[in-house]
From TrEMBL:
The protein's required cofactors: pyridoxal 5'-phosphate
SUPFAM superfamilies, alphabetized: PLP-dependent transferases (SSF53383)
Organism this protein belongs to: Marinisporobacter balticus
Pathway(s) the chain acts in: Cofactor biosynthesis; adenosylcobalamin biosynthesis
Record-given protein name: threonine-phosphate decarboxylase
Positions of transmembrane segments: none
CDD domains: AAT_like
Amino acid sequence: MKKAKHGGNIYEIAQRLSIKKEEIIDFSANINPLGVPKSFKKALVENMDVIENYPDPEYNTLIEDIATYHGLEKEYITVGNGATEVIFSMISNLKPKKSLILAPTFLEYERALLRSGSYVNYYYLKEENNFQVDEQFLEAIDEKLDLVVICNPNNPTSQLIGREEMTKILECCKKKNINLMIDEAFTDFVDDPNSVSMMPFIKDYDNLYIIKALTKFYALAGLRIGYGITVNVNLLEKIKDHKEPWTINSYAAMAGMVLKDKDYIKESRAWILSERAYFYDALKKIDKIKVYKPASNYILFQLLNEKKDIREALLQKKILIRSCNNYKNLDPSFYRIAIKNREQNEKFINAFKEVLYEG
Ligand SMILES: Cc1ncc(COP(=O)(O)O)c(C=O)c1O
């Protein structure tokens, strides 16, 4: 199994360019530019001493906060060192023999599935369909599958499956006795998260597993905290039995409080709604690229009729973007960029035009 390359490696770039990592504007990782909620920062500073003790091995406070936020019972929740740990622990305990994932999609599903010995089928999303999941996807869900994994909105395409479509997929999986894992790491960034999230279906479908991250919307990527929800309590017990203790540290164990920060959530929603429209419109005006309309806080685009390595060219301007060349079903002409604040987005547009038209 190979190491997967992700966005956000500002350390490697800073070293290579002999600059400070703070000088780089990182468009390669999809993190809320509002940064860590102030209420949480304050709590961290005031409670620095919590690291003197082991965290609660049951993570009761954290799980209670998550349960309250979703209006669900505590026993349906498992927490992890980022959504990544939850994806790996759920998959390794589900032990699927045969699985289906999208292509392209977040790289860690494939790694987790291969590590667990699963055979992996791919549903190749069509460029002419803007990489959206179409009706034919239902036909790809055959009885021999044990698990279907869907990222919604999908990474790196920023395309969304609406609730109606997702319900059909869930029903289809249920009928065929297949588990469905939906990664909602980015659902909080869509126009109307409540009408997209499949959380309201969790109690009625024991084949449904939802993954959530606090690392993206609450800008806690370095803290590492995520969770998973399912009514399959047998699986959650197995996870507990097999899992290493204390993978979530005492600071991360406090992070459930961010879910109560209504001002931060409101401010973040206002930012994403306005910046997504602004950034998408500005990019659409650039004739050398095809931009895919984003549903999340990142944008996929393709460089048209150009052989330039624009990632490298932008790096010379201290701007880091995500090349999509290691995603299945995308070629090196595809790139993904995060939506950041207005000043940074404007800087990107100006630098990008320079690279495309002057370089
Ligand atoms: C779709 C998706 N799910 C999960 C993750 C992992 O999130 P975390 O940092 O919480 O492990 C990522 C990270 O990029 C992602 O893109």
